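2 proteins. here.
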Amino acid sequence: MPRIPVPLRLGAAAEARDELASAVQILVPVRSWLTDPGWRQGLRLLVIAYALLPLVFLALFASSGNLTTPGWAYSLYVAPLWGVAFWLLIRPPEPYGKQELLIGLGIVIWVMIWMSLITISVNSVLNPKSLIGALLVGFNEEITKALPILVAALALLKLRSVKLDVRMWMFLGTVAGLVFGVREASQYTTIAIEHIAAAAVRHSANAAVIGALSFAYRVFVDGFQHAIWAGVAAFFIGIAVNYPRRRVPLILFGVTIAAVLHALNDWYLSNFSLPWPWIMLQALSLLLFLGYTMSAASIERRVRRTPLFRGESMIMDKFTETGDQPRA
């Protein structure tokens, strides 16, 4: 066999290395990534941070003895995902910006303070096992979420003569519901963790599974449930503020729908263990919410064209009519 000269062998090896380096640069374009303007958009970096948060939780809270900590951490982690989903479902029309952001922040602060000062105290003396008690709980909690929407909408109208689209109010209602759910989940996840610990002592695998499922339910679903009820109520509040002719009946109707669905949920869970009727009730709530997300714009257009909803408040009309009548 003829011998290949050393320079030829070295040249072939160098060519192979160059080809390999070229292939790596094409398939793993690090330099191109580093200079890509997409990084400046922030979304990709946010995805990295968000994906790493559960690992950060493990690092930060592994030594914590506070049982509410996991509930707070993971409920807060899940809530923005539901928020994005609600935004995509409702699709509030542009323009929107700093004003809506500040309103959303105010709603978050309101719900947290109102829950701590009023809602929890009122609930502590109510019994959801009775239908009346469950209705009172439902109204108590739905009013907590609806009040900041109503106050913000009326303040914006009176102070700045601005009316937001009902879809924006519907989305802001879901924000109020998510905040409520996060605050509530921190309480119920504590109970779930205690059940898991008790199950470990009793060596009961089934009880441990139920505790784990309860923890997951509170983290993933609690805020979602509250958000869809609050979103429906906020839709009617938006209609009522924008078209004041039937303002009070519309507000009462929207809050009552949410409160009744909420009450039936709490009453059933307090008295029965069969899950399927409860799941059907949740499906009904979800179908109602999705129906309004799909038809919110068309409903508002029909309201705008219907004399029934146009004009000033009927209550103010009554006062005016009474005042205009001549005295005997």
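next one coming up
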Amino acid sequence: MKKYVVALLSAAVVGLGPTAIAQQSVPEIPFDADINFLKLPAGMNLGEASGIAVNSKGDIAVFTRSNSASGPAYGATASQILLFDKTGKFLREVGKGLYAWSYAHTVRFDKDDNLWAVDKGSDMIVRFNPQDRVTMVFGRKKEASDKAEPWERVTPPRAPVPGQFRQPTDVAWDTEGNIYISDGYINSRVAKFTKDGDWVASLGEPGGGKLGNLNTPHTISYDAKGNIYVGDRGNRRIQVIDPKTNQFVREIKIDVPLPSDAHPWMGAQPTVEQGAAQSGAPWALCVTPPNAQGQQFLFSSDAYPGRVYKLSLDGKVLGVLGESGKQLKQFGWIHEIACPAENVLYVAELLNWRVQKLLLHPR
């Protein structure tokens, strides 16, 4: 079994300040993969698989950048939710032709099996009940009757507006049902709402360094205690929000050395410095349900070297798996992970236009 040595794993914890965990041996987790698990209808292919989620019945929702023949906001529409049962059988399309569809980003099920879709292109977040009816909407896209065009990125960035989004990325919930939306590419903050959809607060601001500064919060998840884990991709770290105080209380950095044979999915081989700046940057996060012992685990993925990392909730790296590439058990930019169990993962890949079901075999 391969071993990776963690050079340094930082965890800034409330009251303790930055701490360094000593070098540790990180095993490579053996796993099996299935790229033919989902049974698509004849003649249908996935586009870029940007989102994946699993509900309490085992049904699987895939948010795919397909459907490009229909009308534009400022480009061809690239959002489509496809629903499959636990055996991979195709069930139906959810929200066909919805006004919010523009550019798919992520999809999540909440504890009541409501399906939430986050559309980066329309700046909208939509909740469907289990009967596929829209029951809650956040944000509003630019009107086609006005000057509908992408958000302009300016320096310094414009202040965020309560209730408005600029390229949102993901959604999570605490134990009270409060809603956290990572408002990612332009605003670089987390928007918090009550369970009824009322505005609460804007958490974080653009920047780096200190806790609460965010640079492209790309993914967000939560544990059984309601702690919110924010994948601060541009700062190469995961930040944790205490839902009771709305404060960023600690950070987790994944520092597992690159394997000597690491290569990108596309483009030139990065320099050592460029590779180190990408490795461990969280593209996708998920937290497993509590196991029989009440333990939960955090999974995170990066684009280069294309690995999935298993962590304890306090930030210790427990294992790694996978690499970048186009073959089975290789990954092309994992954009979302669903982890219904500690050793069962579903990963949605942008560049390989597919979903892989992974069965882990930790030793």
